[in-house]
């Protein structure tokens, strides 16, 4: 087991990519604390995940610095330490607001979770790791969209671009403490957000036509990459943002020979489970 006796925190771990990461960490022997703002979803996730190992839920709003500090403190209370911190919690603008109409409230809401939460969550975890004196790992969740100019997701892409830069400077700032920092950049993954995209066959076809592998990924595939970045196998990987996107990040035009998904195939793709 690659993470035996390690203690990990996964923010936004009650569903989607965070859930997949938590599951894979548990399978590799880690004790895991998941956090989310929705207590009901968090408790339900723990009930499902406990078949894989020792897991605990802490309610947390990562956009509040003190909430991140309380999350780390509660993890130490439950499991004695923190070895791995995964900054996964993220939100998007469901209204696809145009740049000219974005409000201060919208900006603060999305940046608060997607960038401020990563900044101060990582800081709180790193302080605990430094106190322990034996290093650790931070895994940030960015996005392939951090590198794509999607004006309909302006705040989301801007915040995720910030996560990529933050990952680099965190890595430099924490190298003296043997804390490695890297990020994963998911592309189209079977999450709630992707299912909203998938509710529109035309939009879904647009995304898949620019994904050479021809399918969406799974949260557990993201989890396997997060295991690699948390374990000793990645000790020479430094400040990187690693794409897990089926080729979406570099495919600007529809894949040659791409055939539009039929109604039957679309229904099958919609039935992919977590």
UniProtKB/TrEMBL annotation:
One Pfam family here: adh_short_C2
Keyword Oxidoreductase applies: yes
Keywords: Oxidoreductase
Entries under PROSITE patterns matching the protein: ADH_SHORT (PS00061)
Oxidoreductase among keywords: yes
Domain of life of the source: Bacteria
GO biological process: bile acid metabolic process; fatty acid biosynthetic process
CDD domains: SDR_c
An MF annotation (GO) of this entry: oxidoreductase activity, acting on the CH-OH group of donors, NAD or NADP as acceptor
InterPro entries xref list: NAD(P)-bd_dom_sf, Sc_DH/Rdtase_CS, SDR_fam
Alphabetical list of NCBIfam families matching this protein: PRK07231.1 (NF005559)
Family membership noted in the UniProt record: Belongs to the short-chain dehydrogenases/reductases (SDR) family.
Protein name: NAD(P)-dependent dehydrogenase, short-chain alcohol dehydrogenase family
